[in-house]
Design brief:
The chain is α/β, with parallel strands linked by helices. Helices cover about 40% and strands about 10% of the residues. It contains six helices and four strands; from the N terminus they run αββαβαβααα. The protein has helices at about 1-25, 55-75, 85-100, 115-120, 130-135, 140-145; strands spanning about 30-35, 40-45, 75-85, 105. A four-stranded mixed sheet has the order 1-3-2-4, covered by helices on one side.
Length: about 180
């Protein structure tokens, strides 16, 4: 009898752990990151190329792994994804939603949008969530782009691109030194 109880207990524990593993594998879907039964539901507006819905397979795998790990570490939170269109339309939709008082909980935006959202009163400072050393370690152009004049941080930079100006020396003997 004791042996049967131990066998039943071990079998039950194995079935429960396997079923939770199967459920956790389903925690990164097309439009959701996290436990489908989570208490906290956040809405995230983002472009596909910053998610597991990117068209480049290598990035898909990386994002899926990152999101899976995050979901397992935060089983009480789910993130509902809304994939947004090209940048200008995305910005317009986001500004409209913010002005109407119903913006998403999170959004991935281009850094040059941050001052517009700060000036409109649509963002709140987030520097209380970061150690001062973390902010100090960012490149100056990063903190300049996501902070106000008083140094309050309103966004966290997650990527950038490389900008360069190519010119024909015969046509433009003195090229500009800044983007201004």
């Amino acid at each position: 009898m004791y042996r049967q109880l131990v066998l039943i207990s071990v079998t039950l524990a194995l079935v429960m752990s396997l079923s939770s593993m199967v459920l956790a594998d389903d925690w990164v879907t097309t439009n959701r990151i996290g436990n489908p039964d989570a208490e906290i539901v956040l809405e995230w507006w983002v472009q596909a190329d910053f998610t597991h819905r990117d068209h480049r397979e290598a990035r898909v795998e990386v994002y899926r792994d990152i999101y899976q790990e995050w979901a397992e570490e935060n089983p009480n939170v789910q993130v509902q994804l809304t994939i947004m269109p090209e940048l200008e339309e995305f910005k317009n939709r986001l500004m409209l939603a913010a002005s109407r008082g119903n913006p998403p909980d999170m959004s991935s935006v281009d850094s040059y949008w941050v001052p517009w959202f700060v000036d409109g009163g649509y963002l709140q400072p987030i520097d209380e969530f970061f150690e001062e050393d973390f902010v100090d370690d960012l490149f100056p152009f990063v903190t300049d782009g996501v902070s106000d004049l008083e140094g309050r941080v309103y966004a966290l930079w997650h990527s950038t691109d490389m900008r360069a100006l190519f010119y024909n020396k015969e046509l433009v003997p003195n090229p500009p030194r800044t983007w201004d």
